[in-house]
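Running co-folding for dioxothiomolybdenum(VI) ion.
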Amino acid sequence: MKNIDAYTHTRGESIYLDDIPEIAGTLYAACFDSPLAHGNIKYLDTSAAASSEGVVRVLTFRDIPGINQIGGIIADEELLAAHQVHFCGMPVALVIATTVQQARAALKKIRLEVDPLPVITDPRVAAGKGELIVPPRSFSMGDCSAAWRDCDFIYEGQANSNGQEHLYIETQGAYAIPGENGVIKIYSSTQSPTAVQRAISKVTGLPMHMLEVEVTRLGGGFGGKEDQANTWAALCALATNILKRPVKYALSRMEDMRMTGKRHPYSSDFKIGLSKALKIIAYDVTFYQNAGAAADLSPAIMERTLFHCTNTYFVPNARATVYSCRTNLPPNTAFRGFGGPQGMFVMECAIATAAEHLGITAAAIQHANLLQTGDELLYGQKVLSEASACWEKAVTHYQLDQINKEVSAFNNQHRLQKKGVALMPICFGISFTNTTMNQARALVHIYTDGSVLVNTGAIEMGQGVNTRIVQVAAQTLGILPGRIKINSTNTSRIANTSPSAASATADLNGHATRIACNTLLNRLKTVAAAALNVEVEVITIREERVYVGDSMSLLDWTQLVLATYNQRVSLSEHAHYATPGLHFNKALEKGHPFAYHVFGTAITTVTVDCLRGTYEVDAVRLVHDAGNSMNPLIDLGQVEGGLVQGIGWMTMEEVVYDAEGKLRSNALSTYKVPDIYSVPKIIEVKFLETAQDNPGILRSKAVGEPPLMYGIGTYFAIRNALRHFKPGTRPAFDAPMTPEKLLINLYPEEAAALDIRQQEIPGLQMLPAT
Ligand code: MTE
Ligand code: HPA
Ligand code: MOS
């Protein structure tokens, strides 16, 4: 089935936050954010801004009636800076004016003086000073200290991965509208309406039942709106609460890039030990997570780094520790993979290090250690593994031998162009790592004309969850998809929602929908059985007709719905789903946190221009485990999109903060995301065919995040090509491998002579924020 949004998307008719028709009297907000990364506020003067043309009010922390606090996991984040600023881009004041232009113009009249304090941008420096968000956390299994004795080869190293800008097409924003008796309705571009509702409740002091959060869809979230939509919604609601007027704020791209957090950069130390048979005997890893200035979701993200630190390999003796380090950057946040990619990248660096020292391919080590069914991961969960199935299928289906031969032949024939190949097997756990969050609800109404309205907590952000929920309802009720409408997501209809995240949205909300529809179906069947004078057990509904056994009855869907209504039987149902079997003991750091795991293997081929340092991704060919895919077309889109986003993170996307904590890559002119010219020339996706069962909705496995991690393969394919050009070279693991960095690695002596890394680029100036 095609994505139900395809038609309005392609016609430009889909409604996003900024498309909502505005109510007369709507005011517009703009945020004054800190130009300094750290310091004590000496003096803040908003009077000139307040008397600026069109300005209705300027709000500071003093105007907050509730608490000045939006921290979700830890209460360490002020909505508006009170006495200190902690990062460049931290909200300090909010201007509300009659037009957007007037609000933005008034920002320039705000005077802020800050007594600077030392700025930390490096997580290792922060850790050295004891600047941690939460105490460090460790997972372990086996005996990592003793196991080194049993290793034939031991290697150590360091790996760095950088941040990543979400670059959702729709920027952050909110629109708050006052109702009677002080209630507020908030439209928000958020993955988590309940988080928005909770944040506003804290800031305004209003109980949650007075706050209605409504979301039709997002123009992308990618994790960036799991927690960080709260700020803008809380600011608008605060203003509405005070002014009793509708207030809207849709961020400009540069405001969004400057003020919001990104994927966490990590700096990590690893030590890996192997046997002669290439079995990984021991792995010890320490991660320094750059959390930014407040916790945000960092404690949950560091946890997922631990869960995924051995990727898809069985490692009998493993120890992993994460330090979540407080720095003076915008609070870093969820981003597709949620700390998993950062953990997996280091494991792949460790394997590459061993392979390069041993003079073998990384694939030889990867293959020798793939998880098998029954193997235990370092957090105690035993896996039902498809790792080998995906790997073997990829190797045979895409003829890896042939690919390798062609690459060798090419490399022999070309001096200044080299190709590289890398395999990237993945394993990703599905469920929120916080067990509590694995719950959802659905409210299904059948109207007397036979049409069906489904409400859930799921947010549609382009990933196709609404289409999946239509499929679930249609299949369960035995009716056509066209009869079903998915309602916007609204906290007054579905309460206490978990964010649409962790790739689990369709599973959680889909199962809740299935349960509600099944209850309704049973009621309808009971009415049908009585009307047809047969036992309930023989009734089915297929293609909108009532069947008795195999024979079609005279009753159709609409007649049955009407009959059910006439008998005063409810045509509405609210159902609850909680993923069964999940548990995790944080004292032991052991348990069964995931409903299941998703597997896959990608084979990446690249060509590097060894004169210029540029590269092209020739092909990514992969086998992906989608279980029994309920929508291969949507799954394909998710695999392709995730892959390209992962390639971007590993190659061209470079978040740059200077030593003062100012974002240098603050616009699309200085931050490069993959475009149509830089995506792989060939992407081939094959879904694994398997008889293995899984508890995903309709046996279809979650697909949102895992494919991003195939992108890691591109990093190593480029590295391998570089090593064909300069045999024996082992540059530092420092992702992303931008063309500039690759050029330096191709010609390190020349680069050192020119002292390229030290040079300031003359004339480079920050673009003014508009
Ligand atoms: N796909 C699109 N088009 N837009 C998005 O914002 N977010 C990703 C992924 N795919 C995203 C996306 C992230 S971070 C997650 S967690 C999942 O979708 C969330 O949706 P799901 O749980 O329905 O897979
Ligand atoms: N994944 C994504 N988002 C989350 C998680 C998770 O495991 N936990 C809390 N938010
Ligand atoms: Mo996705 S990072 O779990 O929103």
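Result summary
Confidence is low (pLDDT under 50) at residues 762-767.
The two ends are 43 Å apart (CA to CA).
Job closed.
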